[in-house]
Amino acid sequence: MINAVTLNKIKTARVIAVLTGAGISAPSGIPTFRGSDGLWKNYKPEELANSHAFSKNPQLVWEWYTWRKNLIRNVKPNAAHYALVEMEKLYHEFNIITQNVDNLHTLAGSRRVIELHGNIMRSKCSKCSKPYVEEFDPRLHIPQCLICGALIRPEVVWFGEMLPEAAIHDARKIVSSCEILFVVGTSGVVEPAASLPFLAKTGKAVVIEVNPDITPFSPHADEVSRIPADQFFPRLVESLAVKREGKY
Ligand code: NAD
Ligand code: ZN
User: Fold this and answer.
1) What is the distance between the alpha carbons of residues 194 and 34, in angstroms, rounded to a whole number?
2) Residues 17, 21, 26, 30, CA torsion sign
3) Within 10 Å of residue 112's Cβ, how many Cβ atoms?
4) 4-29+77-117+160-244 maps to which CATH number?
5) Comparing C-alpha atoms, which of 199, 182, 158, 161 is closest to residue 61?
């Protein structure tokens, strides 16, 4: 599954980071964007997840998000999410940087999670960013901000938008200084998250890709595992049992 030298480095490391994408949640039943089941009513995610689509047809965009929110509410974290919770307990510093908006790392019990692209379960004003928690049926109405009157939108980062400054700043700091970076279930085409594994390589990190498919980062990874994340991480946690017994 992984070469013995790398496994030893994982065992002896103190500072580990994990960059996750939609693939880690795929075994929970949440479609990835680039998988064959990523379409809703024949729209590509890029066509709906942008501010232009929202100004043109907020109802359509909200209907898509409501469909995704309901889907996410009905799924559970999988073995990969739970294995990462176990790993967090074994290391001096263990950070997850996720592109996912599904909240599954936190739901599983991971404590240090940086959400690069926001969280689909939260909403905010499309103009002044005031947070809202209200649930509603977008086919009937879309609530307006109590302060400025603009429409409420999902608190996620849309294509063409900047990432939350603190999140990307912290993510860059973490990958630059970690000893091991796992790059899990991400196609590596959405910037600036796609640059993080390359940034890790300019630091001291050993970068390990976990993805059944080849990605643009694959040729640059120090090690690649083509085993799906929900099998890879539980097996890795088993191999780390020796660490748990305090021998490292
Ligand atoms: P992506 O859809 O572009 O790529 C998913 C990757 O996961 C692919 O490379 C695929 O080979 C891999 N994969 C599939 N099953 C896997 C498994 N079991 N184990 C490991 N890897 C597996 O996703 P992305 O790179 O995260 O970028 C898409 C954008 O879409 C992100 O910005 C993200 O916010 C958003 N998105 C989020 C969710 C979510 O929150 N669950 C779902 C879809 C899309
Ligand atoms: Zn407002």
Assistant:
1) 15
2) positive
3) 14
4) 3.40.50.1220
5) 158
